[in-house]
Amino acid sequence: MKHNLKYLASYLPWLLVLLAFDLFTAILLWLSDVRMFQALVLLYILATVLLFFILSFLLIRKERKKSAAYKSFIANPKIDTELELLNLSSASEKESIEKIADTLYQKQVQIGKLNLLLAEYEDYVEKWAHEIKLPLSLLSLLLDNQSDQLPEDTAFKLDYVKNQIQGNVSQILFYYRVKSEKNDFLFEDLDLEECIQDLLENFDPLLKEKNFTIKLENIQGICYTDQRSFGFILSQILANALKYCSDKPELKISMSIDKGRKTLIIRDNGCGVKACDLPHIFEKGFTGDSGETRKKSTGMGLYLVKQLADALKIDIVVKSEWMHGFEISLSIS
């Protein structure tokens, strides 16, 4: 209705022109025959207004068809939609439409090439990430079976390097996962206590090396989520706690339950985040200026945490005070 009124308003000047012509005709009628003047003038005006609305209706219908054809062509530039638009356009418009069509076709070709390159690149990265798992598995096997034959310092460094590479590979795979149109999450019941214990076991060498004090409180119950994604979220949070820890590091993991909804709270006593940086920590590539260590960060860990949490319907709340620790809460079903 609004579009019809817009079109009608654009035609109103023509109605004024027609009425002006009627006025001129009325003057001629009055000069020629005063007795018939009133009847004929009224008839002329009614006929003019009726003709105006009939023509307006026809023109509005054509304009709406043309508008729909424009939208269809822009959304899907191809020969069929172009011909449909050209059939509804005037001769003066056709040349412009043909130029626009040529430009859109060229852009389509360029976009197609870029999409092909992007698909090939994503395929390469995904294959590389999976292929590198083999040497990582061999390294893990070596450390598990022969770590007692290696110097303690060497074994620790190898384990640290292995964990760093595994973390980086996981980031690549989960970045690809959150950006992919395919949703391959596998939701299942997950024992929270077992999940936390497995996580701490994986990070045990690094936690011991940093002399972390670990406190667990009330970790219990089952949540329904994707195990791999949830484990990745927790591992990124724990990796940050290790990276930005204090001289006497502490890590506290607790859980609260409110109206059947569980909230997992992970708090460390590290350097934390400055107040000016806190609203931006989930932005892609954001590192802030919270110390030299944070400046060396890629800014991808917490970005991926937020992306996956949103996909899993997990609410995240962060609290931090500079040099007084960092706390992140995960509200899960």
Q: H/E order of the elements? A: HHHHHHEHHEEHEEHHEE
Distance between the termini: 46 Å
**Low-confidence parts, pLDDT < 50 over ≥5 residues?**
none
Count all strands and give the number. Answer: 7
* Count of alpha/pi helices: 11
Estimate what percentage of residues fall within beta strands: 5-15%
Rg over CA atoms: 35 Å
Report the oligomer: single chain
Report the mean per-residue pLDDT as an integer. Answer: 81
Question: What is the spatial order of strands in the main beta sheet?
Answer: 2-4-5-7-6
Largest sheet: 5 strands, mixed
- Output the structural class: alpha+beta
Helix percent reads 55-70%
The coarse silhouette is elongated
Describe the structure in brief:
The chain is an alpha+beta fold and 333 residues long. The protein has helices spanning 2-32, 34-75, 79-87, 91-131, 133-146, 152-179, 192-202, 204-209, 227-243, 292-295, 301-311; strands at 187-191, 213-217, 222-226, 250-258, 261-268, 315-320, 326-332.
Could you please describe the fold and organization of this structure?
The structure is a single chain. With 333 residues, the protein is of the alpha+beta class. The protein has eleven helices and seven strands. A hairpin with a 2-residue loop joins strand 4 (250-258) and strand 5. The longest helix has 42 residues, at 34-75.
